[in-house]
Amino acid sequence: MLNDNRIRIIIGHYGSGKTEFSVNYAIKLAEESKRNVALADLDVINPYFRSREKWELLETYNINVLSSYVKGSGSDLPSVSADVLAPLQNSDYNVVLDVGGDSAGARTLARYTEYFVEGEYDMFCVVNANRPETQTLEGVLEHIAAIERTTKTKVTGLINNTHLLRFTTIEDILKGQELCKEVSRVLNIPIKYTSIIHTLMAEVPDNIEGTVLPIKMIMREDWM
User: Is 49 among the domain residues?
Assistant: First the structure.
């Protein structure tokens, strides 16, 4: 069960698998929840692997997809549709915010900070220990500190999403777990989720930290 606060903010460096996690998480949430689900693509920095690209699939799960993309224009705006405000204000909605990968991208959150009340939101940092920027304790702490300074919002949990795409092994996941445990100890925040590509689920050991979320490769085509 995804027992988190109603508003979930997902952050993570480029290449961490942040959007893949966000899309899989939103689908799982829609399957479990009696509330409506909205997924807002707030990443105005990275033009690739955007959650809005899968809007047709997501809408089959009755997920309301919101983004900065202006239909018919062929481009994004450096701001996000005011439509995002509606689910933030409506307690009948579960909200997932897929946010740009660095502090510059996270500036999009600034206009919504009044809705990030302690106890009513979670901000989860996706960690991929195989990415150069977040393969050390210092790198992850610097990333989190930069996001928190920019957004004036606190990270409340970690997501171990250590992977090498379809070449991911259990050893990769355990490597990421050790790094996340260090971050958890220093910042006193929990490891909320460990995402594992669904083909490895039969090999998952008993000592995995956090809730295990099976991940399907939705954002990447089979040839990628």
Answer: yes
| Alpha carbon distance 149, 204 (integer Å) | 36
What is the arithmetic mean of pLDDT over 176-205? 96
Q: Give Cβ neighbours of residue 98 (< 8 Å, ≥ 6 apart).
A: 10, 18, 19, 22, 23, 39, 40, 41, 42, 43, 51
pTM: 0.89
Q: What is the CATH number of the domain that holds 164?
A: 3.40.50.300
- E strands, the chain, in order: 7-12, 36-42, 63-67, 69-70, 75-76, 93-99, 121-127, 157-160, 191-197, 211-215
Contacts of 131 (CB under 8 A, 6+ apart): 13, 15, 16
The average confidence (pLDDT) of the chain is 86
